[in-house]
Amino acid sequence: MPRYADTLLADGERIALRTRQHWLATIIDGRYPWLIFLASVMVLLLSQNVEAGFIRDVVGLVVFAGFVIAIAWLVRVYWNWWAQDYIVTNRRVLKVEGIINKRSADSSLEKINDAVLEQNLVGRILNYGDLDVLTAADVAIDHYRMLNAAPSFKREMLNQKHELEGEFSRPTSPPLRAAPSSVAPSSASAPSAPGAPAPASAAPSSPMTPDEVTRTLAGLADLRERGAITDDEYDRKKAELLARL
Predict the structure, then answer these.
(1) How many degrees, rounded to 5, is the angle at CA 153 between CA 152 and CA 156?
(2) Which of 18, 47, 105, 153 could in theory staple to 59 by disulfide, Cβ–Cβ 3.0 to 4.6 A?
């Protein structure tokens, strides 16, 4: 049975890297149920010195309730950790969380400008870190806390972004030239009047650099996602831009 994140992939989209939070995050997120569990164990041990009776029965019920709450809480923490999917594809970065109610957030590689990685000493030893994904405006659009193998995640994300930009900047074959239209004999043989200006030809579109084309396409993709332009308009403008390389 495929995971929920796999059902969100588009046609032609492939997963380059899949990970989740580091296992240490489950201990930090589960610190309160662990404290309840340890406290229940201590109370259980101390209650052995209490004489059998009403008080000991009440303490036993409290300890039992503590064990049930702690175990149920820990199951939820570890299940939530297992359900996480932090994915880098050839088109975007996808983040899926939640056990029953799923929450997914994705960032197009075209919009990503950089990623800020922070690792403390323990994170460098255990190979985890905090990663902020930034847009072209240097605004964090997603935050990954205690990300497992964070340096590899950032490196793969930037590699896929570079490959995607390379696809846009590859030169395409020039368009076929239209066959010259036949010219009437009278107009072909008629000499131009002395001093008359030569007929103006259509000014060709100025060429663009690959970086300019990439930035323009990123802006068009953002307009398409917001519904400002249609897919047909985006594809037509994309073809025009690629022809100007």
Answers:
(1) 80
(2) 47
Q: Where are the alpha helices (DSSP H) in 9-53?
A: 24-29, 31-46
The domain of 29 spans: 22-83
Q: What is the pTM of this model?
A: 0.63
Tokens 């332009």 -> residue: 229
Within-domain flag for 186:
no
> Over the stretch 85-100, which tens digit does the pLDDT of each residue have?
999 999 999 999 999 9
Are 169 and 213 contacting, i.e. CB atoms less than 8 angstroms apart?
A: yes
Q: Name the E strands within 109-183.
A: 112-118, 128-135, 140-148
C-alpha distances in Å from residue 117, one per residue of 55, 87, 120, 155: 54, 17, 10, 11
Residue 218 makes CB contacts below 8 A (sequence gap 6+) with 110, 111, 136
Longest CA pairwise span in the chain (Å): 125
Q: Which residues contact residue 60 at a Cβ distance below 8 angstroms, ignoring those fewer than 6 apart?
A: 47
In a domain, 66, yes or no: yes
Query: At 147, is the secondary structure helix, strand, or coil?
Result: strand
Amino acid letter at 43?
A: V
pLDDT digits 0-9 by tens, 184-206: 444 444 444 444 444 444 445 67
Answer for the pair 133, 107: CB distance below 8 angstroms, yes or no.
Answer: yes
Domain count, the chain: 1
C-alpha to C-alpha distances, 217 to 46, 84, 138, 245, nearest whole angstrom = 69, 31, 19, 13
Instruction: Give domain status of residue 64, yes or no.
Output: yes
Q: What are phi and psi of 192, to 5 degrees?
A: -75, 150
